[in-house]
Design brief:
6 helices, Proteasome_suB-type, Glutamine Phosphoribosylpyrophosphate, subunit 1, domain 1, 5-stranded antiparallel sheet, endopeptidase activity, alpha+beta, single chain, disordered N terminus, Ntn_hydrolases_N, 40% helix, protease
Length: 243
C-alpha cells in the first residue's frame, strides 16, 4: 500500500490510495500503465505514481526544475529520487511516501523502467515494475506472463490485463497507458467496459439478463423455478468474479 502525506498537522489522518501502476519492457521500448494518471516529464520520459494526485504536483514541479527535453530516463529517475529523498529529510514532522514508476527511451540505453521507493531509492527493473494496490499479486502475475521479445501491442495488452485485475476499478474508471520507443510516444485510455476482466464480466451479465428475460416470457407462471434459476446464475457470476 502506498501512502502520500504532506501536511504539517500531525493529527491529520493518513491518506491512502487504491491506484495500481505497472511498467513493462518490450522489444524496442517500454510501456507504463495506471488506474489513475500518467505524467509526461520530458519528450521520452513518463511517470506514474500511487499517490494522491493534488499533493503529488509538489513533487513533480520540483523534479521538472532539474529536467530538460533531452534528459534520459536514467537521469530523470535519479532526479525524482533525489527530490523524494529531500522531502523525506527536510520534512521532519511530515512524511512524503510514494511509489513511483518511471519509464523512458533513449538511443543509448533503449527502453528503461525504474521503481522509485518511499525514501528516494531508485531501482532499475529489467523486465517490469509494479506499485500500489495489489502490487504483490501483480508481481507474481507478471512473473508468469511477461515474455522476452514481446511486441508493443502484446506489452500493452499485458499491462491492460494486469491493471484490470484491480478490483477497485468501477464503471467510472479505466486504464491509462503510455508507450515510448525510438519512434516517439503514444498514449491511450482504455474504458472500463473494454478491460479484459470487466469485458468478460459485462458480457456474462448481459447473457444472464437476456436468458432470464427469455425464461420469464416462456414460464410466466413458474415464478419459484425462475427465482431458483436467477439465484443460481448470480452465484455463478460471483464465483467468476472471485477467480
Amino acid at each position: 500500500m502506498c501512502i502520500f502525506i504532506i501536511d504539517s498537522d500531525e493529527s491529520h489522518p493518513s491518506k491512502t490510495t487504491t491506484t495500481t501502476i505497472v511498467g513493462v519492457t518490450y522489444d524496442g521500448g517500454v510501456i507504463l500503465g495506471s488506474t489513475d494518471i500518467i505524467t509526461q516529464l520530458t519528450a521520452n520520459v513518463f511517470l506514474c505514481h500511487c499517490a494522491l494526485g493534488a499533493d503529488t504536483q509538489v513533487l513533480l514541479e520540483d523534479a521538472r526544475n532539474f529536467l530538460d527535453q533531452e534528459t534520459t530516463a536514467t537521469v530523470a529517475a535519479e532526479i525524482v529520487g533525489m527530490v523524494l529523498s529531500a522531502y523525506d529529510i527536510n520534512n521532519k514532522k511530515n512524511m512524503l511516501q510514494t511509489g513511483v514508476l518511471l519509464g523512458g527511451w533513449d538511443k543509448n540505453g533503449g527502453g528503461k523502467i525504474y521503481e522509485i521507493g518511499f525514501s528516494g531509492v531508485v531501482m532499475e527493473k529489467s523486465n517490469f515494475g509494479v506499485g500500489g494496490h495489489g502490487a504483490v499479486d501483480l508481481n507474481d502475475f507478471l512473473e508468469k506472463e511477461w515474455k522476452k521479445g514481446m511486441t508493443e501491442e502484446e506489452a500493452e495488452q499485458l499491462v491492460v490485463k494486469a491493471l484490470s485485475l484491480n478490483n477497485n476499478i468501477n464503471s467510472a474508471c479505466g486504464v491509462q497507458t503510455a508507450s515510448v520507443n525510438s519512434k516517439g510516444f503514444t498514449t491511450a485510455f482504455h474504458p472500463y467496459g473494454t478491460l479484459p476482466i470487466n469485458a468478460e464480466k459485462l458480457e456474462l451479465e448481459h447473457m444472464n439478463e437476456k436468458y432470464l428475460g427469455k425464461l420469464e416470457l416462456e414460464h410466466a407462471n413458474e415464478k419459484p423455478l425462475l427465482e431458483y434459476i436467477r439465484a443460481h446464475l448470480l452465484l455463478l457470476l460471483n464465483i467468476n468474479e472471485g477467480l
